[in-house]
Amino acid sequence: MKIIALYAGGPRITHTKTTELHSGISKQTTSRLQVTKETIQGDGVALTAYHGGPDRVVCFYSREHYGTWEAEYGKQMQAPGVGENLLTEGMLESDVCIGDVYQIGNTMLQVTQGRVPCDTISKYNEMPNLHLRFAETGWTGYFMRVLSEGEITLESRVTLLERNPNACSVLEANRIFFHEKKNADSMQRLLCSNGLAKVWQDRIEERLLEL
């Protein structure tokens, strides 16, 4: 597990060849992130319904996915293409579980949910329906809450400190959340994942009541 790049930046107007976006997706490279329990210094989001808040302070995405999307769409995808704060290697959605606690530098972070992809990802990268492919594959990236504040640098070591042996991987959690909306057993299993973001807990409980 290692950090490839760090990014931060607040919402701004970004122009593509076909549209104008007001979003926090367009972040700038940085050598360090100053992380608190509420935010990252110099970072911000536009759509607070899907990003930000204490359960979604830090966004991760895997470098391994970039090559897949580039091959599928036949064009280069420039990082940070999904507004991630950390571009990593060896931390795929299948490797990381809801509730995992990581030491990164002098911070302590906990995995809370997969990222919910919106069409801003497709528009920003000029790759039609990329956000739908994110949801189909489960390669969405994921969020972490901050348990212990501090600083993350490019040299920071990533160490898994704690994992519940019964926890859902982020890939499993994404499959349940996006595709198994009528599967009570799967949803109950995800609800039992310690550390799950409250917004996902609430949504799953609503779906269970609707069955």
The average pLDDT is 94
Rg on CA atoms, Å: 16 Å
Provide the CATH superfamily.
Answer: PK beta-barrel domain-like
Number of domains: 1
Structural class by secondary-structure content: alpha+beta
User: Counting H and I runs of at least 4 residues, what is the number of helices?
Assistant: 6
Strand order of the largest sheet: 4-1-7-6-10-9-8-12
CATH level-1 class: Mainly Beta
Low-confidence stretches: none
- Beta-strand percentage range: 25-35%
Describe the structure in your own words:
This is MOSC domain-containing protein. One of its GO terms (molecular function) is pyridoxal phosphate binding. The structure is a single chain. With 211 residues, this protein is an alpha+beta fold. It has a single domain, classed as Beta Barrel (M1 Pyruvate Kinase, Domain 3). The protein is built from six helices and twelve strands. The protein has an eight-stranded mixed beta sheet with strand order 4-1-7-6-10-9-8-12. It has a two-stranded antiparallel sheet with strand order 2-3. Strand 8 and strand 9 form a beta hairpin. The protein is globular. The N and C termini lie far apart (40 Å). The relative contact order is 0.18.
Q: How does the SSE layout of this entry go?
A:
Elements: E1 2-8, E2 12-15, E3 20-23, E4 28-30, E5 32-35, E6 58-62, H1 63-73, E7 86-89, E8 101-104, E9 107-114, H2 119-125, H3 130-137, E10 142-148, E11 150-153, E12 158-162, H4 170-179, H5 184-191, H6 198-210
Parallel strand pairs: 6-7
Antiparallel strand pairs: 1-4, 1-7, 2-3, 5-11, 6-10, 8-9, 8-12, 9-10
